[in-house]
Design brief:
This protein is mostly helical and 98 residues long. It contains four helices and no strands. The longest helix has 55 residues, at 42-96.
């Protein structure tokens, strides 16, 4: 389990300080676990797993918000392209009728 925790800490998307705070652990405890000076107990591993799960949920929510905003922006850009094309067609029609 020690190796798994070390890998999880290494791959964590946030800082050690932020993870410690989210997990309710001290930064020094996490530093010692990460360096191998200390073996984590089950409660600490559980707290880390739960903290990472909360981060994951927030990351997914943030991703969904960004993707939705991107889709809306892309739709708006397509609408603007269509309006521009329609204006150009109108100008061409006006030129032909002269």
């Amino acid at each position: 389990m020690k190796e798994a925790v070390a890998k999880a800490l290494e791959r964590s998307p946030g800082s050690l300080r932020a993870l410690a705070q989210e997990a309710g652990l001290s930064r020094s405890t996490l530093s010692r676990i990460q360096s191998g000076e200390r073996v984590p107990n089950l409660a600490e591993v559980r707290a880390l797993a739960e903290a990472l799960a909360r981060w994951e949920a927030r990351c997914w929510e943030a991703e969904r918000l960004l993707r939705k905003a991107l889709q809306e922006q892309e739709k708006e850009q397509e609408k603007e392209k269509m309006r521009s094309a329609m204006r150009e067609l109108g100008r061409l029609a006006d030129l032909q009728s002269v």
